[in-house]
Design a protein that fits this description.
This protein is an alpha+beta fold. It has helices at about 15-30, 35-50, 60-75, 80-85, 100-105, 125-135, 155-160, 215-220, 245-255, 260-275, 280-285, 315-320, 345-360, 385-395, 405-415, and strands spanning about 55, 90-95, 110-115, 140, 165-170, 175, 180, 190, 205-210, 225-230, 230-235, 285-290, 290-295, 300-305, 310, 325, 340-345, 380, 395-400. The protein has a 4-stranded mixed beta sheet. A 4-stranded parallel beta sheet has the order 4-2-3-18, sandwiched between helices. The model is unreliable at about 280-290 and about 295-320 (pLDDT under 50).
């Protein structure tokens, strides 16, 4: 008899007893579009995330599209278009991201400039600085907090001090920055409330947060077909991106669980790290550091054979030489842990692990393959994608959800290791 399947994810929904009566109330009212429950949720997000504005949307992608549309409007009606000449505005996106990021740029009538990423998957400030120097009509940046880990915010801002930074924060709702929930980084951020995320809404949903009044005014109108109160005219390019009362209800109650969800997902990741650190592939390797034999471990340090810590040894360089695979993070940190990613030394080693995982009925994801510059319908500028291509060929994301047992995690790790 085959083993029970291990799914890649299971939604973390609030208790039905909390949402059921309110859903019935919204249904009975006949008001499914934004009303008291959406207003309550938005107020709660403003308070918890410590932001001036928090706007619910039908999806995260809609929020990114509307931000790109604002970039297009501001650029084509502003002085920069006159200074730089003809051509659409360009928005820089990381090469290593889900297709929704560049698609939002295209739907907003802008062009894409692909920039490279750091070994952790987040946008590389040096590649962005090159885009700033080389790409004509560069008008904004759309970085991504990959796997829920915070981008290098300050270096990115230094690379483009004069351009809007609009974060695709789809993975990051619940991630903390210096101990507090991530709020309004850059000029605006859009979180996803999709059912696959740590803090979900009713199937789909997005949340735009910002301290910028002009962006808020744009989104409030644009999410309702460019609404002009008291008229059927429209003032700006809009779409139907309104949230429903059902989304507001589920999102509000999911938000109340954010600290619990953060803690428990951190626990799942710590369990993976413990299982990986106990693997013989790490503990039995002896390497030479500064002319001395030391034991190779996966926690970012080199240890003498007697176990004492002797200093840091860059994990990316060490593991490429001495191990078949390694976790892309060595400690749980402050991330909401949208995904737990393992990187393999070669594409062939990853393919072998995939075969073992499938044989043991364990779901996994190749986040993100292919890179943006290799997508079938891609057109635009490619500033850099070398590191992104390496990640796309060698990274695998493993099941990480509240309730997965340590026994199942051990099964996952054994399949990855081939033990």
């Amino acid at each position: 008899m085959p083993p029970a399947p291990i799914p890649f994810l299971k939604p973390s929904l609030p208790d039905w007893r909390l949402v059921g009566e309110e859903l019935k109330d919204a249904y009975a009212s006949g008001r499914f579009h934004p009303g008291k429950y959406v207003e309550r949720a938005e107020a709660a997000f403003r308070d918890v995330l410590r932001v001036k504005h928090a706007l619910l949307l039908s999806t995260c992608a809609d929020g990114l599209i509307l931000l790109a549309a604002k970039v297009h409007r501001d650029f084509t009606t502003g002085q920069r278009a006159k200074d730089l000449g003809r051509g659409p505005p360009v928005i820089a996106v990381p090469a290593f991201t889900f297709r929704a990021t560049p698609q939002a740029v295209w739907w907003g009538k802008c062009e894409v400039a692909v920039v490279d990423v750091l070994p952790d998957g987040n946008m590389d400030p040096a590649s962005l600085a090159k885009a700033r120097a080389d790409v004509p009509n560069l008008a904004a940046v759309m970085p991504v907090h990959v796997f829920g880990r915070t981008c290098p915010v300050t270096p990115l801002r230094k690379a483009v001090p004069d351009l809007p930074i609009l974060y695709d924060a789809a993975h990051a709702l619940g991630t903390r920055v210096n101990g507090a929930p991530m709020g309004a980084l850059g000029d605006a951020q859009v979180f996803s409330l999709n059912i696959t995320k740590a803090i979900p809404s009713a199937g789909e949903g997005g949340l735009l947060v910002t301290d910028d009044d002009a962006i808020t005014d744009w989104i409030l109108k644009a999410r309702w077909h460019g609404d002009m109160p008291g008229s059927l005219d429209w003032k700006l390019p809009g779409m139907n991106a309104k949230p429903t009362e059902w989304q507001g209800i589920v999102a509000f109650h999911a938000l109340q669980r954010m600290n619990t969800v953060h803690s428990r997902r951190q626990g799942v990741v710590r369990a993976y790290l413990n299982l990986l650190e106990c693997a013989p592939a790490f503990e039995s390797r002896i390497v030479v550091v500064d002319g001395k034999e030391e034991r190779c471990t996966c926690d970012g340090f080199a240890r003498k054979v007697d176990g004492t810590i002797t200093g840091t040894l860059p994990i990316e360089e060490r593991c490429k030489v001495h191990t078949a695979f390694w976790p892309m993070q060595r400690f749980a940190g402050e991330s909401i842990q949208k995904d737990f990613a393992v990187r393999f030394a070669t594409a062939e080693l990853r393919a072998a692990a995939e075969t073992r995982l499938r044989a043991d009925h364990i779901e996994f994801k190749r986040y993100f393959h292919p890179v943006v510059s290799q997508m079938s319908d891609f057109s635009g500028y490619v500033v850099g994608d070398t590191v992104a291509r390496e990640l796309a060929d060698t990274v695998l994301c493993l099941p990480v959800w509240i309730g997965i047992t340590e026994e199942d995690q051990r099964r996952v790790v054994d399949a990855v290791k081939g033990s």
